[in-house]
Amino acid sequence: MAEAARFGPVVPALIVDGRRESALRASPRRAAFYCGAVRSLAGDLAAKGAPLVVRRGPYASTARRLARELGAKAVVWSAGFDGAAQRADRDLQSVLEEGGFRAVAVADAPAVGLDESDAARSGGGSGYRSYPAYVQAWRALAQPPEAPPAALATVGVAGEALPEPAEFGSPEPPEPSAGAAAAQRTLDDFLAAPALHYAAARTVPSVAGTSRLGAHLSFGTIAARTIRRRLAARSADPFLLAEERWSLQSFGDALARRDFFLQLAWFSQSGDLPLQSKMRDFPFARSHRLLDAWLEGRTGYPLVDAGMRELRATGWMHPHVRLVAASFCCFDLGVDWRVGRDAWDRWLVEDDRAVATGNWQWVAGVGADLAAYPRIYNPQKQARRVDPSAAYVRTWIPELASLPAAEILDPPARAGRPQLMLPMFDGAAYPLPVVDHAAVASAFLQRYGEYARR
Ligand SMILES: Cc1cc2nc3c(=O)[nH]c(=O)nc-3n(C[C@H](O)[C@H](O)[C@H](O)COP(=O)(O)OP(=O)(O)OC[C@H]3O[C@@H](n4cnc5c(N)ncnc54)[C@H](O)[C@@H]3O)c2cc1C
Fold first, then answer.
1. Which of 217, 245, 269 finishes a domain?
2. Were both Cys, which of 53, 74, 258, 263 would link to 127 (CB 3.0–4.6 Å)?
3. What residue ranges in 379-450 does DSSP mark as E strands?
4. For atom 5 of ligand 1, which residue has the closest CA?
5. What is the pTM assigned to this prediction?
6. Residues 314, 425: one domain?
7. What pLDDT band is residue 19 in, cutting at 50, 70 and 90?
């Protein structure tokens, strides 16, 4: 909106188009979050005397029609980063320009602007392909001053009703904890204390201490720039301990990772294709007889299963567990990263295709990072490392809740307990591992090695 201020008072408008609709239809919790966020935005704007004008229809033609009704000079919008969003933005741009409007897409989703980070690179113009180099530049870039908010115009055009979850097939009510005020509170609460222990929380899933800002960031109810600015202010506290400072830096690096994947999608424009061109034909499977076991949290590897159950129950999975669960899909099952990504999309509240694709490609070893190789996580070793008391696993797998940690973390020890194979939870027993991780991982590596040497 700050960019729009250049053109005079702003009429805030929201277009619900087919792409938005299908993203919301995919995940009922996402639809509830989105509708809650829109409701909250409309309330904030109404309090300032400017209604939010809602329209439904094809993106470009609906925007042009509305601009005409308003007698607008310019249309300014927040640019998308994944391939489909970029195509839609280009279409919008040309339709508006043909209609005689100034059309300005503002790439304001990252904390550090694309131009700023790209300019920090010698031979800029194509962004960064390596996260370690990117994060170094990101940390060093100065924070630009906060832009003043745009003045709002009050107009007399008719808007449509605010979107409701039911229109996207969601039975949930609009999420009350969505919206800008809730996002600010989440950030305040996080920076007050949990941020000082973030370095541990980002790997230990039983510590509820990551920011939980992912969905807010993906819907823009808080700006990444705002978080970076607040983080800088928090980090200036002279009384911080060294490990607290380290935690704050790790949190900054997480924001930088988001920016990295956004700029990667922006500059590469490769959409769903692996960024490693040599990996484009790697024969990942599109299905597997055990895919449902992975999706339902019944692989017999408790950390993987707990993650999948957390995702299905809440719309979120702990960040480190995501790595282990995604690795299981790609390497233990040999299933294409796009199948895994799209499966998670049905439950995640976050709605960020570019970030999802970047992460899945990184795990699968087909992304742009210079160190592109399969990130194979041993699910049993990971469980022992990040959930040694099995507190996280117990939360999500009630079938295992009464067992000692040593047995939960060691499937061979569980094999001696026949009662686990009896129906104890929802009529289903908790299984022993459905694959032998060591065997399938080494078979995968052999296939990968042969393919890479071709
Ligand atoms: C296989 C896999 C799939 C993922 N899919 C998605 C997805 O579909 N949508 C999505 O928004 N995030 C995705 N992530 C990134 C990350 O796990 C989530 O953004 C994070 O879990 C959100 O929780 P949080 O806000 O508490 O994160 P925190 O740990 O508190 O991090 C703060 C913010 O930094 C950003 N961030 C942290 N880690 C990453 C990362 N690895 N990549 C990019 N940004 C990051 C997020 O915006 C996050 O909100 C995925 C990660 C993996 C490994």
1. 269
2. 263
3. none
4. 356
5. 0.95
6. yes
7. very high
